[in-house]
Amino acid sequence: MHELLLARLQADPTLHLARLRSDPDCSLLAAFRAGERAPRWMAKVAYQASGRARLRRDHAALRHLAPTADMLRVPAVLAWHDADESTCLIETGMPGWPVTTLPRPEHVHIAWAWLQSFQASTAAPDTALPREHPDPALAAPLLRHVAGLPASDLSWVAVHGDFWWGNILWDGCCLAVIDWNGLHHGSPLDDLFTLVFRLPGERVAGADGRLRLLRQAFFDCTPIAFLVRRMALQAMGSATAAGAEFYRFLLHRMRWEMGLEWQPRSQRECYKAREEWTLMVRWLVIQDFPNPFAL
Q1: Where in the chain is the domain with CATH 3.90.1200?
Q2: CATH 3.30.200.20 occupies which residues in the chain?
Q3: For residues 111-143, b (16+ Cβ closer than 10 Å) or e, as one string?
Q4: How far apart are CA 81 and CA 172, in angstroms?
Q5: Which residue, among 140, 126, 276, has the nearest Cα to 212 in the 3D structure?
Q6: What 8-state DSSP symbol labels residue 169?
Q7: Could you tell me the pTM of the whole model?
Q8: What is the pLDDT of residues 181-214, one digit of tens each?
Q9: In which band, very low, low, confident or very high, does the pLDDT at 81 lie, cut at 50, 70 and 90?
């Protein structure tokens, strides 16, 4: 066990440590007190280079967020070790549970309100997204379309980078947000699009199932799609500007799912993502890259 964990457990013998995840990249542990459902603190420990790099980004992000951590309900750094052959981050535990069923529109409203508060209160960090493109043949149609879009004149905002329902903890009245290693500057719509790009509670059967979810979230006449259209138009002021940000987001998401940004992906995950994106890009080409906010 890492020396930081031993020291904290010895300082408070009433705590019990539970291992939530353990993989070659990073281990996640939580310290609970008997009878309490929310952890007192969380610990992330990494020994491999990729996991240690992620923890350094997480630590830097939490320090950047420290002035507004209580207001936004994000973790605070309790202890940090980055030397020798290991990296360990201990942060405050947050109350709540991830949304695991198909979210209702009110959940999206609450998440969007949180995002607006986050963007208004948090300075955009200097960190930018990597620009390496995935499979050139697969990405080529999307790259050509994005190259022909109007140049963005947006002011950058802080972006969580992986704002999906597994990183949003809901306790029935408020939400907390965890896993900040992807914090960067970007578009005001990036986190909203990530939120609805792959909704929980829906079965995805093969690559065609992923295309179905893309259409339901952005293009079809569904409650979620109507809600996202309204929010995107409110944020951008026009369907043209919102549509341009949507296709720039798709390029970023393709890179992310193929392991070309900060989140490492296994060979199997990359193969699955390539199958899914092949169908999604093919559909977008056949439809002549429709603007989901001008439908």
Answers
A1: 97-286
A2: 3-92
A3: bbebbbebbeebebbebebeeebbeeebbeebe
A4: 34
A5: 276
A6: E
A7: 0.92
A8: 999 999 999 999 999 997 765 556 677 888 998 9
A9: very high
Mean pLDDT of the chain: 89
Domain spanning 3-92: which superfamily?
Phosphorylase Kinase; domain 1 (3.30.200.20)
Q: What is the DSSP letter of 163?
A: -
| DSSP character string of 65-77 | HGGGHHHHT---E
Residue 117 pLDDT: 97
Question: 3-class SS at 18?
Answer: strand
Residues near 63 by Cβ (< 8 Å), separated by ≥ 6?
A: 77
Is 148:98 a contact under the CB 8 Å cutoff?
no
Structural element, H or E, at residue 236: helix 223-236
pLDDT digits (tens, 9 = 90+) for 151-180: 888 889 999 999 999 999 988 888 999 999
**CB-CB contact of 82 with 89 (8 Å):** no
Architecture of domain 97-286: Alpha-Beta Complex (3.90)
- The pLDDT, as a whole number, for residue 204 is 60
Integer Cα distance of 176 and 69 in angstroms: 10
